Amino acid sequence: MLPYGRQSIAEDDVRAVTEVLRGDWLTTGPAVDLFEAELARWTGGVPCVAVTSGTAALHVAYVAAGVGPGDEVITSPLTFVATAATAALRGARVVFADVQPDTGNLDPDAAAALVTGRTRAITAVDYAGHPADYDELRAVTDRCGAVLIGDAAHSIGSAYKDRPVGALADLTTFSFFPTKTVTTAEGGAVAAVDPGRFATAARFRNHGLVRDPAEQRDPEHGGWHQEVHDFGLNYRLPDVLCALGASQLRRLGRFRARRAELVARYNALLAGLPGLTLPAQRTYTAPSWHLYPLRIGDGRRREVYERMRAAGIGVQVNYLPAYWHPVFEDLGYRRGLCPAAEAYYAEQLSLPLYPDLTDAEQGWVVECLAAILT
C-alpha cells in the first residue's frame, strides 16, 4: 500500500541517534537543547520547548495561555480532535468557528462573531501546511484581549507575509509524528514569544519543578532541593528522539522543496480532471505542504477513496469535523454548526505526499484517479 505520508530517514539520522545511545544522556541532556535551538532557527528566533507529542504541545500551550475552567477557546473544527480536546481537558468550553471554503483555515470573521467576555484564546490551525490569516486573527485577539495560538502541526517551515510560522502567534505548537514534514518518531514543541509563557511551558513539561533557589519558597535545604508550585506533567522529549529531530531539521529546506515540487506536479497533472477542486494557496504565503487536500465533487468522495485504496494507494480523509466525535456530541454539540467545514469534509481527500514519493509513484496515483473520474 502506497501511504499518504511517511517519514524520510537518512544515515545521518541513524548516526545521530546512535551517538546518543552510546553517550551519557538518554534524556534531559544536550541533544534536547540542540533540537530546541535548531527549531528556533525556523521560528525566527522564538524559543521553543520540546515535548512528547503534538497533543502534549497543545496541552502545554493552553496551560501557558492560562486557559482554565470557565474560559472559552475558539478554534476550527477542521482539525485532528486534539486541538479541541486539550482545551476541553483544561476545563474550557470549546467554541467552533467556521472555516474559509478555499483553504480550510479558520475564518477570522467567523471567529470574531463568536467572541465573548470569556474568550481566553483563539487557536488557528494551519490546515495542510497553509498558514492561517494571522494578521486578521491578531486583530480579533487584540480587540478582545485573548491569546492567539497557532496549531502548526502541519506547517513547520511555512511563512506568512515573509514571517515564519512560530513568530506569528503568541504560542505556536508543532508535531513531529512520522507523517509530518520533520519527525522525532513521536514528539512536539511549543514556541512562545513571551518569556513568562515560555517559562510556564518549560516548567509544566517537567512536573512543574522549580530548581532555581532564587525562585523557591524554601531554598535552604541544600543543592538537592526542588519544589512544585503548580502541578505539571512529564512531557519531556528524550535525547534519543531530539537527536533524530535535530538531524531532520537540517534537511527541512530540502523536504519543503520536494513537497512543493510534488504539489506543483499534482496541480499540473490533475488540471482539467472533472469533479476536482485543487488546493488553494494565497499569494502571500509559502506553505510547507503536509497534505495534498483535493476536493472530490458530485458525491463521489467515498467511491474514490475505496477504489483508490483497493488499488493499493493509501489516500486519507482529513478530518472528521471535531464536534462530530461522540465525545462532543455528548456535550451537546450538533451537526450543522459550521456549514463550510462540513462541506469541506464531505469532499476532502488527501493524496500521497512525502519527500521520498517518486515521480513514477505520483504518476500512478494520478493515472488511477483519472481512470476513476473519467
UniProtKB/TrEMBL annotation:
Pfam families from the xrefs? DegT_DnrJ_EryC1
Q: Which cofactor does the UniProt annotation name?
A: pyridoxal 5'-phosphate
Q: Which UniProt keywords apply?
A: Pyridoxal phosphate
Q: Which GO terms describe its molecular function?
A: pyridoxal phosphate binding; transaminase activity
Which residues in this protein are found as N6-(pyridoxal phosphate)lysine? K180
Query: Does the record bear Lyase in its keywords?
Result: no
Matching Gene3D superfamilies, A to Z? Answer: Aspartate Aminotransferase, domain 1, Type I PLP-dependent aspartate aminotransferase-like (Major domain)
Single Gene Ontology BP term? polysaccharide biosynthetic process
The record's active-site residues are: K180 (proton acceptor)
- Return the similarity comment: Belongs to the DegT/DnrJ/EryC1 family.
User: What is the recorded name of this protein?
Assistant: UDP-4-amino-4, 6-dideoxy-N-acetyl-beta-L-altrosamine transaminase
Q: Which organism is it from?
A: Nonomuraea glycinis
- Lineage of the organism: Bacteria, Bacillati, Actinomycetota, Actinomycetes, Streptosporangiales
